[in-house]
Design a protein that fits this description.
The complex is a heterodimer of chains A (about 375) and B (about 120). By secondary structure, chain A is α/β, with parallel strands linked by helices. Chain A has a single domain, classed as Peroxisomal Thiolase, Chain A, domain 1 (3-Layer(aba) Sandwich). In chain A, about 30% of the residues lie in helices and about 20% in strands. In chain A, the strands form 2 sheets. In chain A, strands 3-2-4-7-1-8-12-11-9-10 form a 10-stranded mixed beta sheet. Chain A has a two-stranded antiparallel sheet with strand order 5-6. In chain A, strand 2, helix 2 and strand 3 form a beta-alpha-beta unit. In chain A, helix 1 crosses helix 2. The radius of gyration of chain A is 19 Å and the shape is globular. Chain B has 2 domains: about 50 residues, no CATH class; about 70 residues, OB fold (Dihydrolipoamide Acetyltransferase, E2P) (Beta Barrel), CATH 2.40.50.840. In chain B, the strands form 2 sheets. In chain B, strands 6-5-4-7-8 form a 5-stranded antiparallel beta sheet, with helices on one face. In chain B, strand 4 and strand 5 form a beta hairpin. Chain B starts with 6 loop residues before the first helix and ends with a strand. The chains are: A alpha/beta (about 375), B mainly beta (about 120). Chains A and B meet through helix 4 and strand 5 of A and strand 4, strand 5 and strand 6 of B.
């Protein structure tokens, strides 16, 4: 079935997924890590490296990273993309690869990322320049921007610091079920509230990790997946919206582009938020899952803080959110979006071990980039959801 | 071909002379900040410089916390009376007293030998 929403529903699939070096990966370069994850994902799929004819990567320190990884792997891709929509780039890649596969332009897409800022700190401040209209006021990048959105959400909707802390605590409880997660010590609401205040109202424990990690996924057309090693995970919908670059230009501090990309992706998929078994939301800061739960339609605008309370998104709660432990407790090497897709794939394949969501058939992976600037939503499903 | 305006350079030149300027489109009447070569959304390029009233309201606030509390400072988004929103700082009041909805007015100070647009309680 092809939907009338501009997307070839279910016709492309993720057939391989891998992570590598999560937490600490010293002594190698970012491209070494991306290449390692790529080979693991291809092995997972049972597809030879030589079959890859499209390469999508967002290198952390190299603006021309697409060419860098193509050269490293010895590929001559028909599509080489190194898009700069921050952590959302990988959800955008799924959308673009699905369209290129459907058109027949390519046959096998590799989406890869590696970064080790914890063990191999980059020499400079990264590839992005500071806005001349914001830099003189010395906001901490990017936390102060997210703090401003949080302040506005608290003011309008009565969201509390305790509710924000619940997001971090739920992530930690999921991480404790994931042997790969970097942070598995117990964490309480009080721990989050008492942590060092960085940019009001966000403490150090409201912020994601900044550690090492690599990931990759492999995509092919659904008919090709019959010959692959693992169960295919179908791409049912994928949509993207960019609303601004800097926080001072965000149209509404409490409504993100997820309110555009989410409904479009769900319409493509022919399913809705209530149908989701697994919900992977980019948690750069504790406010972001709250905003995305609202904007994607899991609860009304303003209700996100109450929605995440009482363990509702923790293991055993009403909705399985960020089952790998998220950027808050598992991994966040700068651009986290690909890890959302890997975890959703593992859940839909039933490979998630102690944190496995029973009978998971449908998942949403929502990526965020910049300062709530770029929002991309991917809806995934098992073969029986077609 | 007429010469292209130089949005940031012209704005900073005005600021150095003690004037906080906005752009306004002659055709749409809409105000623009930060300065650019055309109005966002419409593409109208008939922009002229107009002096801002300086009146604004705090839209959101955060405080960047330093080890010495005296070094902590506010970072705010201000809604200007003319419509645009911008990032700035509120001086002349304790950082913890800056709240959403507070009326503020623009003030041009010198910081690091450069003019800087900040806001103070109205």
């Amino acid at each position: 079935m092809t939907s009338d929403q501009g997307f070839p529903r279910g016709r492309s699939v993720i057939v391989g997924a891998a992570t590598y070096g999560i937490g600490n990966c010293p002594g190698v370069s970012a491209v070494d890590m991306a290449a390692k994850a790529s080979l693991l994902a291809l092995a997972d799929a049972g597809i030879a490296l030589s079959e890859v004819d499209a390469l999508y990567t967002s290198a952390p320190y190299e603006a021309l990273g697409g060419m860098e990884l193509a050269e490293y792997l010895g590929l001559t891709p028909r599509i080489t993309d190194c898009n700069r929509t921050g952590g959302s780039a990988f959800e955008v890649y799924v959308q673009q690869a699905a369209l290129a596969l459907e058109a027949g332009l390519i046959n096998c897409a590799l989406i890869a990322y590696g970064s080790n800022p914890a063990s191999n700190p980059p020499p400079g401040v990264g590839m992005t320049r500071q806005s001349p209209w914001e830099a003189p006021y010395r906001p901490l990048a990017p936390i102060s921007s997210y703090a401003l959105a949080t302040n506005r959400h608290m003011h309008l909707y009565g969201t509390t610091r305790e509710q924000l802390a619940q997001v971090a605590v739920a992530a930690r409880q999921w991480a404790q079920l994931n042997p790969e997660a970097a942070m598995r010590d117990p964490l309480s609401v009080e721990d989050v509230l008492k942590a060092r205040m960085v940019s009001d109202p966000l403490t150090a424990r409201d912020c994601c990790l900044f550690n090492d990690g690599a990931a990759a996924v492999v995509m092919v057309r659904a008919d090709r997946a019959k010959d692959c090693a693992g169960a295919p995970v179908h791409v049912l919908g994928a949509a993207h919206a960019v609303t601004h670059r800097e926080i001072s230009s965000m149209p509404d501090l409490t409504v993100t582009g997820a309110a555009i990309s989410g409904p479009q992706a769900f319409a493509q998929a022919g399913v809705g938020p209530a149908d989701m078994d697994v919900v992977m939301l980019y948690d750069a800061f504790t406010i972001t899952p709250i905003l995305f739960l609202e904007d994607l339609g899991f609860c009304p605008k303003g209700e996100g803080g109450r929605f995440v309370s009482d363990g509702h998104i923790a293991p055993g709660g009403g909705l399985a959110v960020n089952t790998n432990g998220g950027g808050l407790s598992c991994v966040h090497p700068g651009m986290y979006g690909l890890f959302l897709l890997v975890e959703a794939t593992r859940q839909l394949r039933g490979e998630a071990g102690d944190r496995q969501v029973r009978d998971a058939r449908l998942a949403v992976a929502h990526g965020n980039g910049g300062v709530l600037s770029s929002e991309a939503t991917v809806v995934l499903g098992t073969a029986d959801t077609l | 071909m007429s010469a292209m305006i130089q949005p940031e350079a012209e704005w900073r030149a005005h600021l150095a002379q003690g004037r906080f300027m906005l752009q306004r489109s002659r055709s749409t009447g809409g105000h623009v900040f930060y300065p650019r070569i055309a109005q966002p959304g419409t593409g109208a390029d008939d922009l002229e410089w107009v002096e801002a009233s300086g009146a604004g309201t705090i839209h959101a606030v955060t405080v960047v916390r330093k080890k010495d509390p005296a070094d902590s400072y506010s970072v705010v988004l201000v809604d200007l009376a003319e419509g645009p929103r911008l990032m700035s700082r509120v001086d002349g009041i304790a950082v913890d007293e800056v709240k959403i909805g507070m009326a503020v007015r623009a003030s041009i100070i010198s910081e690091g030998d450069k003019p800087l647009l900040v806001f103070v309680p109205a």
